[in-house]
Amino acid sequence: MSQRNTDVSVQLDMPVDCDGEAVAPFTPGQAKACTVREVLDRVGGKWSIGVLVAASHGPVRFTELERQIEGISRRMLTLTLRNLERDGLLVRRVHPTVPPKVEYTATPIALELYEYLVGLTNWAERHRGAISAARIAYDREHGPV
Predict the structure, then answer these.
(1) Which parts of the sequence belong to the HTH hxlR-type domain (predicted)?
(2) What are the pLDDT digits (tens) for 27-36?
């Protein structure tokens, strides 16, 4: 039997920051920064991008994702899928077959995000050499970070 944590240290109507700490009310800029950080933390996670890319090409099954995303454990894939579904980026569909067939499909907002990821990837490829050269020059002048 599990016990519920009843220790509530902040009032329910008190604003909290991105880390859940009680704070004074947000200014509009702070709220926007928090939202951006929250979203980027989720979609920029180690496994999320791979799942979103795979699902952006059409419905994909759990085992297909497991094969396509090198190094992901079943547990991490399950957690990543749940979080992306919770965030409205994936739709989980269970087909009534024996055994049940489960597919994940990218939502319209995930497909929009995919376009930005493609753009970011293209940018990174175009500027990879310049970034590498800048790092070498910086390390030569300041020492490695």
Answers:
(1) 34-132
(2) 666 666 677 8
